[in-house]
């Protein structure tokens, strides 16, 4: 799909949400400063952790503020297959989970495998692989083609020596599908590598209470995305699990206890919030995100500190983080702890007055797509110089000449999104500043934020232009 002249568009009412396969691109109409308030949906990371803890708890839990999206739906559907009953209220944002308790190895082995479809949800496949191996039984977890290219070998290798039974990642390079036939964990100490994804360690930590054992987990080598591991500890504690961890002094974690049903309120998603904070920063606007503070469990609230380093002003309140635009300068920043916001920041960096170097995110190549290589390919479509590094990117800002050329051009530029929700939401920001920016496959935001386009329209108070597949092909 690459139109050479703008196709005829359909204007839909503000607040419309694209359906998968329904419309193949969207053009956000540029305008002035974006000003306002927004509350993104619940955190994906917190929702899927809370679902794991609640599912294997004794008793019922009530989760409020939950995310309703593909990544949480595949978790819920998979848990339902092992008999976890989950009722929904408030259009799915409240989940009442009847826990099944801890290890059920004896009842589950011998059955035909439970087939679980986990789409492209890293948290779901990694957390469930650990949890189900600890719970016991036969399972097969498979997803979309990209999921079968996303590594899980380090997790499988960590589990195999301490599990009674067999576990394998059957695609080349140690990728899903994952096949498990388990009679539970032995309780022996484990070792896990953490340089590709922190989700392996988080999965093992959360699985220990499910195994009914207290387990020592040694972290081998570098650990990426550390704030997510802290989040795991906090979530486990909220549900009665025990973690003993001091990463500053030790590279190992003791984890165990038993989960008990709990009422738990989920924070809005901080990675989703990054798009709105960035929208303020690049349009001369001011946007407050409700329901988040710097004390949030999600490390991605740290994105606003990077914006501050670039020149934006922050207004911090107990339950709201507001970003106000100011002149933007380039920064040299390690984003290893907030890697889901690299695409957002790269778009912001295009509008700064000097280059930005993003470091520490080599693991971004293993996510929904290669978030270094493919990000560079797309951003270069604007004419910007983007240097690709093993561990990140250098983004050279658009020059005044580039901005003039792009502002006057009537040629559309189509941004491919690679089935990656964060590509789509980040490129939408370009459309706030520049005409003719088409974002392909807008429905891919459904992985974590189905209402993204609707929320953005309400905030900017003007409709996007939607283009159907037929129009563009
Ligand atoms: O544990 C989590 O909830 C997550 C951890 C991060 O993954 P990595 O640990 O693979 O960086 C992040 O990118 C992902 O969106 C969610
Ligand atoms: C990397 C992501 O997701 P996951 O690893 O959970 O699929 C993400 O949401 O940006």
Automatic annotation (TrEMBL):
InterPro entries in UniProt: Enolpyruvate_Tfrase_dom, Enolpyruvate_Tfrase_sf, EPSP_synthase, RNA3'P_cycl/enolpyr_Trfase_a/b
Pathway(s) per entry: Metabolic intermediate biosynthesis; chorismate biosynthesis; chorismate from D-erythrose 4-phosphate and phosphoenolpyruvate: step 6/7
Family: Belongs to the EPSP synthase family.
Residues binding phosphoenolpyruvate, per UniProt: 44, 122, 150, 199, 371, 422, 447
Catalytic activity: 3-phosphoshikimate + phosphoenolpyruvate = 5-O-(1-carboxyvinyl)-3-phosphoshikimate + phosphate
Record-given protein name: 3-phosphoshikimate 1-carboxyvinyltransferase
Cellular compartments annotated: Cytoplasm
Gene3D superfamilies listed in its UniProt record: Enolpyruvate transferase domain
Organism: Neorhodopirellula pilleata
List of residues binding 3-phosphoshikimate: 44-45, 49, 197-199, 225, 340, 367
Gene Ontology cellular component list: cytoplasm
Keyword line: Amino-acid biosynthesis, Aromatic amino acid biosynthesis, Cytoplasm, Transferase
Protein task: Catalyzes the transfer of the enolpyruvyl moiety of phosphoenolpyruvate (PEP) to the 5-hydroxyl of shikimate-3-phosphate (S3P) to produce enolpyruvyl shikimate-3-phosphate and inorganic phosphate.
Domain of life assignment: Bacteria
Residues at the catalytic site: 340
